[in-house]
Design brief:
There is one protein chain. By secondary structure, the chain is mostly helical. 75% of the residues lie in helices and 0% in strands. The chain contains 7 helices and no strands. It starts with 9 loop residues before the first helix and ends in a 7-residue tail after the last helix.
């Protein structure tokens, strides 16, 4: 990816430097997040894995929006980051999760009432 020239665009260069570490951390975090997301974890771990995958993915569109808003020449920034923007659009997780039926299934498993509330919903339960 092309860097911003600090002499031509000092504001864009400052923001690029500010975002470098969070973007790098999100890139490294995305690898285990995706592996955990596609594993057969259940319950809250599955929800945590999906949240981690989404959270790490959201850093990249935030970076793109910030850089497009602060860069002096937006077109030059976008042309210098075509591959990253294409990957960003291609890896958007929502359509894949919906098509696989994983998002609704994961949400329904994570939203079960705790054990103490299950007794009150079943009038024939002998332990209540």
């Amino acid at each position: 990816m092309a860097g911003i020239d600090a002499t031509r665009d000092p504001r864009g260069a400052r923001w690029e430097a500010r975002l470098r570490r969070p973007v790098l951390a999100a890139a490294w975090l995305a690898i285990p997040a995706v592996l955990l997301d596609f594993s057969s974890l259940g319950g809250r771990l599955s929800l945590l894995a999906a949240s981690l995958a989404w959270g790490s993915w959201l850093v990249f569109p935030v970076e793109a929006v910030v850089m497009l808003s602060v860069a002096r020449d937006r077109g030059a920034w976008a042309r210098g980051h075509v591959f990253g923007l294409a990957i960003l659009l291609a890896t958007f997780p929502l359509p894949t999760n919906i098509l696989q039926g994983r998002l609704p299934a994961r949400a329904s498993r994570a939203c079960r009432p705790p054990a103490c509330c299950r007794c009150s919903t079943s009038p024939r339960s002998p332990s209540c």
